[in-house]
Specification:
With 490 residues, this protein is mostly helical. Helices cover 74% and strands 0% of the residues. Helix 17 packs antiparallel against helix 18.
């Protein structure tokens, strides 16, 4: 059964301030922090945890050659599970963990997940063989899925209304920069210290965040909620996991193979059954009622298209640089760094400056700009390196476009849901982005597999696909202006 608050005017996305928060204590006099915590510390901890969670979605990609050297008897298809196991569990558990965080307490879920992530990172760094490493990466992905919705849920529930948009911008900058900076940071670490270092760096960061969070984070939970439906949660988790697995491994297994068809079909069926059960259950696994909020529904759809374009862009860039322009892993990492910087800068600017009614136009303009630069890249990309005249401006524009878009989408989705559903809403919206990302990665793999890897044509076709995905994101994002106008009039 959906929450009535998800479709009432109090959750209006057009207001720059979220509705009153019954689970947040009143501000004490003289501007002292409510409940003995500092909003700035909550932002720092939320952004830090988000950074390492999204960093680990891309940082491992550049470690493949070193992994192959450490495990010479393993096939490349088996090594790819080091990436896939993290991605599958991360996407599958985002929505259930958001729901659990709303019920059991966001601080509790955040700290437990962060602790598990830190332990899993240590296990990855010490892995004696490939099966152990894959299992540890799966645990790491599951833990990351608990960190993200709980972290942003805490941030939204504790930030003063006047600073909410800027806080979401800073949080979005952390996630955007982490995803884009992964290849650069991974290239440096692998080149100097080897593949184990990309996991080892999480350990001191995780310990510091847990120690600070124990004392500095307030607890936020909805005491009136029941634990989510266990059967529905299991069905939804398994469905998303199978769907992401099929999309991720389809290019390896073959798109017409029994494994690909079975996993994707089974995942879609389980997901549909879980959503149908959630629509009528008193303690749903998925807050389907949130989709009754048209702004949230449209923002989630735009997130899926944006995620597909983003993952295709992130995956194809380093691969093109190393296979066609023959850059070293370290040089390729630095070549994509400018995009990470503009991504973070754009996220902060949008968070601080963009008004709620401007968010659809930010998404439309940013994705239109990315579509335009992708057309230009499709036309100009060749075998001869042209970093300053092609790659650098493309990276700067692309990074800024994604930083602005992801922040605008996060802000729109977060401020359109009631306070008691903050973590659930963020989990669902991020799941949409990850599902889109899995589709984008799968499409990239299929396009590249259909061409000769040493030439530019495969990557030109990837950028053409990015044009279509970015265009869809721009159109859907602009449609959000109608939902906001309708909501304001009502």
């Amino acid at each position: 059964m959906s929450s009535p608050a998800s479709s009432t005017p109090s959750a209006s996305p057009v207001s720059p301030q979220p509705p009153p928060r019954p689970d947040t204590p009143a501000d004490p006099p003289h501007g002292a922090p409510a409940g003995g915590f500092r909003p700035g510390l909550v932002l720092l901890l939320s952004a830090g945890a988000t950074f390492i969670a999204f960093l680990d979605t891309t940082v491992v990609n550049v470690a493949f050659p070193d992994l192959a050297t450490s495990f010479p008897s393993e096939r490349i298809s088996d090594l790819s599970w080091v990436v896939s196991s993290y991605a599958v569990l991360f996407a599958a558990l985002l929505t259930p963990m958001g729901r659990i965080a709303d019920v059991l307490g966001r601080k509790r879920v955040f700290l437990l997940s962060l602790t598990a992530f830190t332990v899993a990172s240590a296990l990855c760094a010490a892995a004696p063989d490939l099966p152990f490493l894959i299992a540890a990466r799966a645990l790491q992905g599951a833990a990351a899925a608990g960190m993200i919705p709980a972290a942003l849920g805490l941030l939204l529930a504790t930030t003063p209304p006047a600073g909410l948009a800027a806080a979401i911008g800073a949080w979005g900058a952390a996630g955007s920069m982490a995803s884009a900076a992964g290849p650069a940071l991974g290239g440096v670490l692998v080149d100097v210290f080897g593949w184990r270092s990309v996991f080892f760096i999480n350990i001191p960061v995780g310990i510091a965040l847990v120690a600070a969070g124990i004392r500095g984070l307030p607890e936020r939970a909805d005491a009136g909620q029941k634990p989510p439906d266990q059967l529905g949660t299991a069905a939804f988790t398994a469905g998303i996991a199978l769907l992401v697995l099929g999309l991720t491994k389809g290019s390896d297994w073959g798109w017409g193979s029994a494994a690909t068809i079975g996993t994707t079909t089974g995942g879609a069926v389980l997901g549909a059954l879980a959503l149908g059960r959630s629509a009528h259950h008193p303690a749903p696994a998925v807050e389907t009622g949130l989709f009754g909020n048209r702004t949230f529904a449209v923002a989630s759809a735009a997130s899926a298209f944006t995620g597909a374009a983003l993952f295709a862009w992130l995956l194809s860039g380093p691969l093109f640089l190393t296979t066609v322009w023959h850059y070293s892993v370290l040089r390729a990492g630095f070549a994509v760094t400018p995009g990470a910087l503009t991504s973070a800068l754009a996220a902060v600017v949008v968070g601080k400056r963009a008004k709620p009614h401007q968010l659809p136009f930010v998404i439309g303009a940013a994705m239109a700009a990315f579509a335009a630069v992708s057309v230009w890249t499709w036309q100009q990309l060749g075998s001869d390196p042209s970093f300053l005249t092609l790659w650098l401006p493309m990276g700067l524009i692309g990074g800024a476009a994604f930083g602005a878009t992801l922040t605008a989408l996060s802000t729109a989705a977060a401020t359109s849901v009631p306070p008691s559903r903050f973590a659930s809403g963020i989990g669902m919206s991020t799941t949409a982005r990850q599902l889109g990302g899995a589709l984008g990665a799968a499409a990239t793999g299929a396009i590249i597999a259909a061409h000769r890897l040493g030439g530019p044509q495969a990557f030109r076709d990837v950028y053409l696909a990015c044009v279509l995905l970015a265009g869809a994101s721009a159109v859907v994002g602009l449609a959000m202006s109608r939902t906001m106008s309708t909501r304001k009039e009502s």
